[in-house]
Structure formats: structure tokens, C-alpha cells
Amino acid sequence: MKLILRTLEVWNWQGLEHEVLGPFDDGLNLIDGPNESGKSRLRSAFDYALMLTHRGQGKRAHLRSKGSTGTPRVKLDFELDGVAYTVEKQFLDKPTSKLTCSGQTWLDEEALARLAELLGLGSTKIWSPEASQTGVWSLLWMRQGESGETPDAQASGEAATTVQDALARQTGAVVAGAVGQEVLERARKEYGRFRSANGQPRGELAAASTALSDAEAACKEAEAARTAPQGVASQLASVEATLEGIDDRIAERERAVAEAQVEADAAKEAEHQLRATRAEVETAKEKRKRLAHRLGQVEALHARTAELEAERRDLEAGRVSVAASQGKAIARLETAAALAEEAEDALQTADALVASAEAYERAVMARGTVEAQEQKVADAGRVTDALKNAEAGAAACLTRDTLDELDALGATLQHARAELSAATPPLAVTAHADLVLNGIALAAGEERSLREETIELEGLATVRIQGVALAAREDAVRDAERRLGQALLVAGVDSIDDARSSYARRQALESECAQHRARLEVLVPEGLAAAIRELERLESLAETLPADPGVTVAVARAQRKEANSRLRELRAGRDAARQPVTEAASGLSGLAARVELARTQAERVAQELEALPAQEEFQGELGEAQAELDGREALAAAAQQRFDAAGGAAAPKALVRALRAVEGLRKTQEDARERRASLRGNLETIAGQDLHARVQEAKAEAERARDRLDSVKASDRRATRLVEVLEHHHAQARDRLMAPIIERVAPWLPRIFPQSELRLEGAKQTPTLVTGAITEHFAELSGGAREQLGIMVRTAIGQVIAGEGRVPVVLDDALVNTDHERLGEMLSVLDEASADGVQVLVFTCHDVDYDGLGAHYRHSLDKPALRLA
Amino acid sequence: MTRILHTSDWHLGRRHARLPGDVGARAREARFTAVERLAALATEHEVDVVVVCGDVFDDDLVGNEVIQRAADALANFGCPVLLLPGNHDSSSSVEGALPRLAAVSGAHVSVFFEPEPVEVGGTWFHPAPLGRKHYREDPAAHLEPTPNAPSVALVHGADKTRSAGRNDTNVIDVEALVGKGFDYVALGDWHCQLVLGPRAAYSGTPEQARWGERDTGHALLVELDEAGGPPMLTPVASGRLKWVDLPWELQSAEDVDALAAQLAAVPERSSTLVRLRATGALSMDALAALEALIAESDTFLSMESDISGVRLAPTEAELSHMTPPGFLGDAVRALLETRNDVDLEALTLLNRFLPEDNR
Q1: DSSP 3-state assignment of A527?
Q2: What residues form DSSP beta bridges with A857?
């Protein structure tokens, strides 16, 4: 097919009064303009011109410009397979279609029919440019916002057929078209009767399998029910056997009960007697026990009395012994105390001797050191005097601060003078002849420096010499001189140099003072006054020399140490002798208390003994009680023998057991009778239920279910195999068929999607990108990637449909989500496509971005002012 | 001379549950109508006594409505009817089928619960009733004929001479009974009518019970010779339903035609139950003809067909016509290439889905 759009012209078209596009080039065409400039309205005009019916009022009302009464019209020149056509359509007012070609004209329905025939449309009454109506053109002519949609989503059955026919022409492959689809769908439907999409049993297969399971279960149940009567009959026979002879067994057990009753009565009487004799034995035992207890109490009191007497005696003996020990200890204490007093006297004597020896020794030492101390004090006095003189001299000289102050004033003065000097202009007048200048006469050749002043050159000029604050600077000099003079006067010097000399002298004297002080530090580190006091003390000692005690201080001190040591020893001995005396006194006190306690306890025991009968009397009573107990126990033993002979405690138990046996048998008999009646009823009921029929029906149902399952399995096997084979060959045919599209996209793809491969998957051949192990279906791609891949695929489809010819691909702002770099690549793709089978018409509001397209035809729409409304 | 109507294996209460819907009900009812027909035959042939040699009921636990229906049918007999418990209705408990029947039947009906002989019209009947389903020993070994009187043994089981080497139960030494001097041994258990000798015979079931049985639907009219000679045995027809079993090998369209002719020749279609089990391999046309034949055979009482054993074997001519476009053609070639059963079945299915002009 070769379809070329040439010229589009509209009148009163949705706000566009009149607009002409074209003639378009066979290749790249660009229509740009800002928003609301009419691009999309002109884009839709192609649909109206070629495909949509001119009829209709309500559905076409939007075509008329608001507020306008003009009739919407569209005219399109195009070429189809080398033949030029012109189509004109008028809407709303006297709607009409007109197609002309080589002098031939078709009007209205004929025109629509002819157009449908030329463009391969399925209908002549197309109301809107929808995919289901406009066939393959909906794939190739994208409206605004459609570029990101899946190409297959817009492909109606007719469009798919058109594409497939075109592909089939190129590849020679045949997918079998509608027949193939129908057969495949029927096969899948047949498969769906038995299995789900993922191959799991469902539908008839699952139902047949379940039915067989249910039928087999019902069969087992029926067969089990069929055996029920045999079980019931068996139970009935067992019950009959139980009832047979049970009356005899009951009678025998009743006789046993009568015998057990007689034995139980006799045992009861014997037990009564046995209990009475046992009570009397217990009474006698209690009496004997009481007497034995009282006798024990008396014997215990006598024993306690003897114990207390022995204890008292032992305490008395102890007290005598302790008193004797105490006397001896007192004597030893007195001796030790006397020795300690003697030792204290000896220590006092030793102390006096030490004091005498020390006084004598100090006096002797003082006499030896008085002379040296005197020399020391004399030397120190001379140095002290020299120090005082030097300090006085230094004090009379200028200080550093004063000197610094004078230096600062001097510097200030010098600075002021320099300022003054600098302010004085370096101007001098040399008289060439005698003259008077400002009252000052100058002889010829005399030179005079000029200061700030005004010079009158008589009759000639007035020269004014103007210095810089000269008076102020002169005042500053004078002020500095005054302040320096005052400072010198205060300091007592005539000049700064004198001041420096005074300060140098002060420094020399201060150095001398330091030397004197160092000397004194060596001579009398304790100070001169202290040295004088020490001299006076030594002189006093030397004057009062005591008598020589005859021993040295060391000897006297040794003697005193010895006396002191002995005193400590004797004092310790005295303290040790005091301890036994104290302990003996304490022991005597404790023994006296214990003797008193023993005596008191003995008196109390004696009182208790007096209150009780005599021990012999108790012994007699105890013998009588024992004799009585022996007699009672003999009677009890006889009663026990009689009880045992009557069956003892087992007799009543035997009676109870016998009664229970009778009761149990009667219960068994009653239960068996009830059971027999029930079983008979059951058997009659079951026998009449036709359990045999139930078994037969269940077996038949199971067989039918088995046959049904076998049949369904066979059908499933058939359908599964058929779908498997059909799907396989369908996929192969589809791959062969779609190869041209993939081949055309292949060189473009790496520019936008490096390393990716295009696949067309599924029944609708949805574009899918495969990058390594990652598969991204069209809907999963980003908005930009979708529109880029979508345009590539649509353009490739256009090329396939064009075959050796050419078809238009129209893009209305189709790359709005594409970045600048990729846009450049996409423009390159469109350029290449335009060279091979595709006439490209691009509508865009991004005119600058599309400069790189290099469109052969370009038209820029004006601003929205065109909109009539 | 004593005239006896010898019958057995009524199997009243058999459900015929495999048969669809009303057909099963008709087969069930046919067993009772056969009994009613026997009553008419007894009257027609003026028999002195009717002996039923076992399996009156299909099971001991048939329902009470079956019992009552049997009693109603038995009421039509104008002579004594002697019933022998067989292995299907062997229980002797009061709740068993025969005891229940005896309780509701007329006085002319007798059930042999005990092996006690009875005399009817001068002839002694010696029963060997089965008290349980299976006997390892000969259940009739104890029978002895009545001295100096016509004696008939009534037994239910397998003839010993025809059970040799088989693990049968209830095996009866018929020759021994004849040797003991019984004038006639009336047997039940086998559904086909079979005369073992001059003095012993199986009467067979009066109404066929399933496909595969032969020589059924009859009773035996036994006429005892007073002089002690061999009895005269005359088969009398009693059955109505025809059970036609057709295991059919099909390899060509002619075989299908032959089958069609066979079916067309079957009389009394409304009383005939047909079972067709076809095997073989057919061309597409022949297979279509077979399917059409089966569809047209709905005038039989029942037509049970199984053609799953018939494989599709397209002829070269059919294959040359079978050229669907595109991948369908590829699929056809792939399925034909293997020629295995599943692929041929799949091809048959595909053929069904193809438009007429592509087949």
C-alpha cells in the first residue's frame, strides 16, 4: 500500500476559522505550535476527512466553533497507490461527503463506501475514531496521550487482521486467521472442561473423580449395611444364650444369700461380746497405768532429795578451800605493793641526777661559744650599717619610672618640633636688590626664609604663603617644652641627661645593697636581733656555772632508765598479785548463793514427799490392779475365739457379695430381655429395608462412575494433547509472522534500550523488553520507555503494512515523557523510518526540541488568538 | 402320571441397577411378569405341581415390597408350588426372604426349610435346601428316594461332572442321585437350560438377567412316567426381554454397514437391550457413519455402546482434503506423524472442531 497525505484544509473547525496544512512531504513533516493553537483539532481532521461519517448532529456538534454559525468543513488531498484523490466533507449543515479522483466523483454514502474500500475499513458508518472502527489506522495515527498505550490494546480484530495479512504477505507464514483462532478457542474450551489454566484437574475431570470416590464410599457403606443383619442376628443369638439358664443361676445365688445371712448373724453376736470384754480390759489397763505413774513420782522425789544433799556438801567443801586461797593471795599482794613503792623513790633520785648533769653540761658549753658569737654580732653590725647608707643613697636618686616619664616628655617635644619643622614651607627669598618685605628690609643678595605670611610686593602683587596649622604646631612645641621643664624641676635635675646619670647611680647603689644583704644572710641567717639575744643568753649561762654532779649526763640518764624499768616490773607484779584476790572473793560469793539454792530445793522436795502416801502403799495397789487386768484379758481372748469361729469380719462381707451377685444376675436378665426385644425389632426393620437393592444400586453407581471417569480421562487426554499441539504450532507460526516487526525495530532498539531485546508475547503480541534475565512487559515500563518502544513498534508496523509502498504515521505530542538525549535518538529513528516506507507527521508544542528532526515540511501554528470563541 | 413344571433362579428383587432409568425398572418388573407367565403355563399345561429349585429371590435381604410382589405373583398358581432355598436366599431365620414370603403366601406355597420329603399327587419330592450360601460338601448327599414310589430330588448347585477341576461350592453328584433311584433330579443354580441326562436337568432362569447368558427364558415341563421310565422333558418359553451383546470388530465402512444390518435385523426392539462394544480402526467417514448409526439406534429398549476402542485412521483421500490453513495444518501433520493412539484421538477431536470445508 502507498498512502500519502498531501494537503489538509479546514473551515470553521472547532475554533479554527480557516487553516491549511501542506502540501506535506513524503518523508518528515512537522507541525508545531503552542498549547491551544489547534494541533490536536487539525490532527483529528484527518480522521474526519478519511474515516468518519459526515452524518449526525449531536455527535458532530463539537465541530462547530462556539458562538459561530459557520459550517465545519474539511478537505484533504491524498494519494493512494499513485492515484490522487480529494475528499471533502461538510458537517452539521447539509452534511455531505464528496470524493473525487481523475474526474470521477462519489457523493455521500458512495464516497464513504469508496473510502472504506480504499482504506480497508470495516464499516461506512464510523462515528468516532475508535480502534474497533478505524482498524489499523488507530495503531498508526496516535492521538494525544495514546503513545504510552500498549499497541495491541488499540488493535481491533480488524486491525490485527490487517497487520497479520501484511505480515503474511511478507513472511509467507499463515497463522490461520479467524479459523485458526476459532479452532484454538474451541480446543481450549474443550481443555477447560477438564483442567484449569495451570493444568490442574477441574470441571468434569474433577467432578468425575469426586463422583467415583463418593460412589465407592457409598458402596462400602451399603455393603457394611448389608452385613448389619448378620451382626444383629449374631448379637441376638448371644443374648438368647445369655438368657438361657439365667433363672437357675439366680436361684442358686439366692440360696447362697440365705446361708450367708445365718453366718453373718452369728458373727454379729460374737462380735458384740468381744467388744464388751475388750472394754473391760482397757479399763483395767488404765487403772494399772495410773498407779504405776504415781509410784514413779514418789521414787523420783526421793532420788532428788539425795541428789540435793550431796550437792550441798560439795559446795561447803569448795567454799572452805577458796577462803584459804584468798588469804594467801592477799599476802602476796601486800609484798608486791611495798616493792613498787621503793622503786618509785629510786626513779625520783635518778631524775634529779639527770637534771644536774644536764645543767652543768650546758654551762660549760656556753662559756666556749660566747666569744665567737660576739665576733659574729660585731661583723653583722658593720654590714648592716653599710647597707643602710647604700639604701639611703639609692633613695635619693631618680627611679626608673621618673626617668621613663622624662624620656616620654622629651620624645613628645622632639615630635612637636619635627611637626612644626615639617609645617614650615621650604620657601626662601633672595633679594636681588635692596627691598623691604613686610616691613623687613633685605639687602641685595640676602636670603630669607619665608614663613606663613602674606607678602606685599608693592604695586606688583600680594604673595600669600599659607602653612599647615603652623600656629597650632608651635603651640604644641611650647606645651611640650613647658611640661618637660616642669618634670625636670620636680625630679630635681637640669636635663634628661642628668636624670639618666641619677638613675645610673641608683642602680649602682641598689647593687651594693644586694651584696650587703647577701653577706648578712651568711653571717646571721637567724637575724641580727636573734644573734644578739643568743649572745646575751650564752653570757648569762656562762656567768652561773653549777656544781659538778660527778657523772655525765649519759650515765645519769642510763641510771634513770634502769630505775624506770624496775618500777614497771614491780608494778606489774603488784597488779598480778591483785587478780587471785579478786577471783577468790567472787568464787566465795557464788558458792554461797548455790548453797542457799540447794537448801531451798531440798525443803520443797521434802514438803512434796510429806504430801504423798508412803511408797510401800503404792506398790500394794499396783499388784492388785495387775491381777485384775490379767483376768479381763483372758475373758477377751475367749470372746475373740468365739467371734473367729463365727466367720469374723468376712461373714457380713460374704452376705453383701451374695446379695450383689443376685442383684447383678437379675440386672443382666433384665438387660438381656430388653436387648433381645430391641434386636428383634431391629432385625425385622432391617430385613424389610431391601438392603440388597441398596447394595446393587451402589455397586452400579460405582461402576457407572468408574466408566464415566475412564471416559472423561480419555477426553481429557485427547483435549490436552490437542491443545498442546495447537499451542505449539500456533506459537511457532506467530513467531514467524512477527519476525518482520522485530527485525525492523532491532537496529533502533540499542539506541534507547542498550542490551535489550524485543519480544512480542501472548495472543496479542504485546511488546516486551528482555534485558538479560529481566523481562519487562509493556505495562511495567516507565511512561517514557512505553512511548518510545510503542512508537518504534507502531512505526515498524507501518513499514510492514506499507510493504514496498508508504503509509502515514501521525504523532500528536507523542514523546512528552522523553528526555532530551532520547528525544534526539527517537527523532533519528523517525528520520530513518521516513526514508523507508513511512510518511511521518509530527504535531508538537515543543518546537525547539524538534528542530533536530530536520523536517522536510514545517508549519508553525499561531497563538490561540485563532480560536474564534 | 405326574406333570411337574420345573423352574428355578427367579432372582426376584434383582435391581438391574446398571441399566439406565426406566429400563432398569422394566427389567426388574420383567422378572415378576415371568413368574406370572409361569403360572399361566402351569394352568395351560395342567401341571400337578410347580417346583422352584432355588434362588427365588436375588438376596435374603430383599425388601418387603419385593416379598409382597412375589406373593402376589404366586397367588396366580392354581397348583402347589414347592420352593427350595438356594445360595441367594439361603437364610432360615424368620427375617429371611423365604420365611417372610411363606408368612404372606397362600397355602399352596410351601418352602422347604428342612430336608423333609413331601408327597404331592403320589410323587415324593425330596428337597436339599441350602441353609447357608456355600457348602464344601455335597448338600444333597443325604437324599434317598422313597421306596416303591415316584421320587424327585430337588437340588441347587453345580453338577459335579461339569465342575471338575473348579473350586466350586455346593457341588452335587447328580449321577449318584440318579443311581440311587430318583426318577428325576430337578436342578437349579445355572441360568441356562441344560438337560444333563434322561433323568436330570437344569431348568434355567425364566427371564434372562444379563448380557452373555444363553439358553435362558425357559422352564421345563416334566412328565413322570408311572411305569418308572425316563420322564418326558419339554421346554416352555417364559422370558420376554432380549439381551443382545455385540462385540464388534470394525476395520472398514463395510464393517459398519454389517453392524447396521445386524441391528436392523433384531426383532422386538422395544424389548431388546443391546450392548455394543466396538473395536478397530475406521476412516473419518466410517467413524462418522458409526456415530450416526449409534445415534439412530434409540428405538431399542436400551442401547449401550462403547466405541472408545475404535481409532481414527484417515484415508489418504481424507488427508488430502484435510488441509486447514496455517498452524492448523502443521498440527494435523504433527498428530498424524506419530500415529499413536492419543494423537489419533486428538486428531479426531480436531477434525470435529474444523469447519466443514477444512475437513
Answers
A1: coil
A2: A29
Q: Are A832 and A748 spatial neighbours (Cβ–Cβ below 8 Å)?
A: yes
C-alpha A133/C-alpha A156 separation (Å) is 8
Among A133, A126, A104, smallest CA distance to A49 is for A126
Q: Amino acid identity of A531?
A: A
C-alpha span between A362 and A388 (Å, rounded):
37
Neighbours of B239 (CB within 10 A): 22
**In the beta sheet, which residues pair with residue A18?**
A11
Q: Which residues pair with A77 in a beta bridge?
A: A7, A86
Which chain A residue has the Cα nearest residue B13?
A: A693
List of chain B residues whose C-beta atoms are within 8 Å of the C-beta of residue A710: 308
A&B contacts, CB < 8 Å: 136
Distance between CA atoms of residues A267 and A646, nearest Å: 5
In Å, how far from its chain's centre is CA A109? 75
Contact between A696 and B64 using a beta-carbon 8 Å cutoff: no
Q: What is the pLDDT of residues A296-308, one digit of tens each?
A: 888 888 888 888 8
Chain A residue with the nearest C-alpha to that of B96: A687
| ipTM value for the complex | 0.80
Query: In A516-661, where do the E strands start and end?
Result: none
Cell numbers found for residue A14: 472547532
**Average pLDDT of span A57-80:** 87
Q: Which of B327, B354, B357 to mutate to test the interface with A (most CBs of A within 10 A)?
A: B327
**Which one, of B20, B85, B53, B35, lies nearest residue B207 by Cα?**
B35
Query: A347 pLDDT exceeds 50?
Result: yes
Q: Which of A828, A820, A833, A811 lies closest to A43, judged by CA?
A: A811
Q: Return the beta strands (E) in A686-806 as ranges.
A: 756-761, 766-771, 774-777
Model-level pTM greater than 0.80?
Answer: no
Please report the DSSP string for A9-32 in residue order. Answer: EEEEETTEEEEEE-PPPSSEEEEE
Element (H, E) at A294: helix A246-396
Closest Cα in chain A to B328: A180
Contact present, A697 and A226 (Cβ < 8 Å): no
What is the distance between the alpha carbons of residues B156 and B8, in angstroms, rounded to a whole number? 9
CB A160 within 8 A of CB A174: no
Query: pLDDT by residue (tens digit) across A701-711?
Result: 999 999 999 98
